[in-house]
Design brief:
The protein is α/β, with parallel strands linked by helices. It folds into two domains: 10-208, Vaccinia Virus protein VP39 (Rossmann fold), CATH 3.40.50.150; 218-278, rRNA adenine dimethylase, C-terminal domain (Helicase, Ruva Protein, domain 3), CATH 1.10.8. It has helices spanning 10-17, 33-42, 60-67, 83-92, 128-136, 154-161, 171-179, 218-230, 236-239, 247-253, 267-278, and strands at residues 29-30, 50-54, 72-77, 97-101, 117-122, 145-153, 180-188, 193-194, 201-208. A seven-stranded mixed β-sheet has the order 4-3-2-5-6-9-7, sandwiched between helices. Helix 2 crosses helix 3, helix 6 (154-161) crosses helix 7 and helix 8 (218-230) crosses helix 11. It starts with 9 loop residues before the first helix and ends with a helix.
Length: 280
């Protein structure tokens, strides 16, 4: 394995600091520094950006981000056992790494970051989707971040990037693709991790759009999509019954057949329906 810096291999770091991955924290460490550098490069040019990393663990991706030129990295790590390893990385890259020992769900990172901001993380499995939804639904758009480059279970990555008619197509795809360009940039097998998870993983890159693809009120769109997919096997005239009076007329006006099911309707028509519902 080629070296990306002067620090020890991650296997040695884990042994030296006694950082056995904890299932309760959703930890699966990626020890190959060539792979962590590839994930860092998938985020694009980091030289003029601050980077938010959640769940750095022993710091493999952190080292990749810094070696690829990130201006500054804010690493939020809940597991205090990892702090000594991260401190050594900070010493090797003076002034470029800040570590917070905290739960990412409880922290506002903006006090520690200066735009432009990129989020790059091998997210803990148990909080990954919740964090993604938070990043996709800020009070104002465009968001403070320019892009998200995130590792998920492959199944979740496919839900983010799915298209109408795909088995994985649903609320998460619509939420992500309404405001972002989303694509899978890397797929990793279980044996790339320590310990190996039971599933494949994938890295998704989401680039924030300046404005949503189609006009719609976010809360109305979420309500429409939630109702549609909560009963995804039903025809939409039944799944959306009670949403507004004369729902069949509004479906037709939005270019949707009342007999269609949610999994066949694209983002543009869901947004058209949300506008009609909001204008009732």
């Amino acid at each position: 394995m080629s070296r990306i810096d002067s620090l020890p291999p991650l296997k040695d770091v884990i042994e030296a600091h006694g950082i056995a991955p904890k299932k309760a924290l959703g930890q699966n460490f990626l020890l190959d520094l060539n792979l962590t550098a590839r994930i860092a490069r998938a985020a694009g040019d980091l030289s003029g950006a601050d980077v938010l990393e959640v769940g750095p663990g022993p710091g493999g991706l952190t080292r990749g981000l810094l070696a690829e030129g990130a201006r500054h990295v804010l690493a939020i790590e809940k597991d205090s056992r990892c702090l000594p390893a991260l401190a050594k990385i900070s010493a090797a890259y003076p002034g470029r790494l800040t570590t917070l020992n905290a739960d990412a769900l409880d922290v506002d990172p903006l006090a520690h970051l200066t735009p432009p901001i990129k989020v790059v993380a091998n997210l803990p499995y148990n909080v990954g989707t919740e964090l993604l939804i938070r990043w996709l639904t800020p009070a104002q758009w465009p968001p403070v971040w320019d892009s998200l480059t995130l590792m998920f279970q492959k199944e979740v990555a496919e839900r983010i990037t799915a298209r109408p008619g795909d088995k994985a197509y649903g609320r998460l795809a619509l939420l992500a693709q309404w405001r972002c360009d989303a694509r899978i940039v890397l797929t990793l097998p279980p044996e790339a991790f320590t310990p190996p998870p039971k599933v494949h993983s994938a890295v998704v890159h989401l680039k924030a759009l300046e404005s949503p693809r189609f006009a719609a009120d976010p809360k109305v769109l979420e309500r429409v999509v939630a109702m549609a997919f909560n009963q995804r096997r039903k025809m939409l005239r039944a799944a959306l019954k009670g949403l507004v009076p004369e729902i069949e007329d509004k479906l037709i006006a939005a270019g949707i057949k009342p007999t269609d099911r949610a999994e066949t309707v694209d983002l543009e028509r869901f947004c058209a329906l949300a506008r009609l519902v909001a204008a009732k």
